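Per reviewer request, we include the raw input and output of the structure prediction for the construct analysed in the revised manuscript.
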Amino acid sequence: MVGMDDDEQSEAPRRRWPWWHRQTTTTRRVIRTALLLVVTVLVSGVVGVLTASTDSSLGPHVAHYEITAQHEVVVDLGPLGTVLVDSPMPWPLGVEVVVQEIPAELTAVSADPVTGLAGDVAAYAQAVSHPDAVIADAVAALVRDALGRAAIVAGFILLVVAGARFASRGLLRREVAHAARRPGVVPLAAVVAVTLVAVPTAITLRDRPAPGRTISALAGTPLEDLRMTGRMAELIDTYGGYLVEAYEENEAFYASVTENLEAAYAQNRAPVRPPGIPIVSPAPTDTATDDGVTDETTDPDDAATGDDAATDGADAATGDDAATDGADAATGDDAATPDGAATDGDDLPPVPGVTSDAVTGEGAFPATEPATEPPARLEPVTFLLVSDLHCNVGMASVIATAARLSGASALLDAGDTVMSGTTVESYCVNAFAGEVPDDLPMIVSTGNHDSVTTAEQMRDAGYVVLGGEAVEVEGVRILGDTDPTLTAVGEGTKPERDETVPEMGERLAEEACSADRADILLVHNPRAALPTLEQGCAPLALSGHWHRREGPEIHGAGTRYVSASTAGASGGATVGPLNGPAEMTVLRVDAASGRPLDYRIVTVGTDATVDVGRWYRFPDPAASAPTSGDTGTSGSTEEPTDAESSAGTERR
């Protein structure tokens, strides 16, 4: 081998990046591919974000959203001016919103324009009180649109690179380097790059809106930093006090309701379960003592709270014996009961293996040898039932508080969460979901005022929307389905799928009867529950729809309970402070057998007062044999529902 002399070595070309050329071919290929992917993701991400747009809602309005580089949220009201607020997005991103009309389904509530205007003001007040819920769907839609656009751009870039490599037969880099040596190519590429940056920047600077001015009428609200331009600024500054007054009235009313609810539970002697009832599933853990009284040391929780009325000593010390008339007279609990006739002991569910006297604390457990090791104690499962909320988002925080205080394991929604099932009512769904803790399941059977769109909005917000199959909560199986009809305000009722309410009821009955077990049937329309109950395939059916409470009453081999409206819906508007009493129901179910045990009603009055009612037992269908003259309904509890029924017979 002949070596090169010094002159030849000095003429040998030197490589520009020695480190790079020391790497293997595979390493350099991996690095180039990774850099290509990084650049592609960055470019496609920027393009996707800056071009994202969507049609969504802004409170009760339809609106068009577009991402901008102005770092402001600009709400275009057309000839009335603009609304501006600092953007919460990373610099320099902002949003432009073009406000459009309010859907006709939401404007046909009243033929009286004054009443309609008052309803609009109340609706805007609710939107002001939950601004995050107003834009939640729009934000999610913009993110989805940006990701979709970025994916398209990234795919296009990679396709172009792959096509170029194929056309150059794998020598793309050499072809690009050769083209760059041609005269004028590099300056032309630089001009194109500068243009792509400069033109959008110039357009953004040119289209920046006027600074606007703050509105003194909105001081002290979540919109106090809002700025406005044009004629609308003058109108809001002059008449915005009505909106603020409605907002403050709404906030004060429901804050008072929440405070009264907490106070009512704090004063209640049986906050989470009826007094005097040993745990019934799978068997009482309390063992009998020689004197016929349960040993309070076996239930430290009850001994601490005074809830176990079967312990004579604890009752004497705390006055918690629900079967003692004197205790009732002292606490005044019967006065808060709708009928005031039955004592708490009479209304408690029977306990297997215990005589009726033992429940009241006057007798003893059967004279049998106690088990050496009592079965593991299993608490019943507690649910909070709401229905017919009709977009009264003021009740959202009240419902969340009731769920927490009652110890509910899940929230059951019997439907009609919105008014007309329109896309703009997503802020109602988001407001309710936003108040409920993330770890509390929300199970809903949508109503006739909820649409397919509403059901999808609920799924996006975290609801479990029943669709004809059972779901399970701590061993309790809940079956239900969405209502097959849609009622838009002012437009009547129309089918939303090829099925009627009775047909849905028959289908659910088949599902309940063929399933391993169905403990609760949750449907909006009470008629849909009858086939399942009459065939004895579910012990309890819960529904709403009628805006009045009925039952619990026995139908066939099960019990039907119809909830009143949790929004105070009584034929008028359901936004703002309550126009009628609002009700929620706390109920308990034995997880081992699926048998409904007991319930209580929480009532919110139009004056913001709260009544946490007494505990009642659910009727036992097995103890109520129908007579020849029965029509299928018997065995209702002593809970008086005639007063509610006489208040109105129109079914919603």
